[in-house]
Amino acid sequence: MSHSRVSNWPSNLQYSTRPLYHASVSKEVKQFLQSSPSGTRSADNAPCRVVIRKITENTHPAHGQCGLFAGKKIPPNALILDYIGEIHCDDRPESDYDLSLHRFPDGTSVGVDASRFGNEARFTNDYRGVQSKPNAVFTDYRTNTGELRMCIRSRQEIKKGEEILVSYGKSWWSNRTDEEEK
Ligand SMILES: C[S@@+](CC[C@H](N)C(=O)[O-])C[C@H]1O[C@@H](n2cnc3c(N)ncnc32)[C@H](O)[C@@H]1O
Question: Measured from the CA of 68, which atom of ligand 1 is nearest?
Answer without folding.
Answer: 4
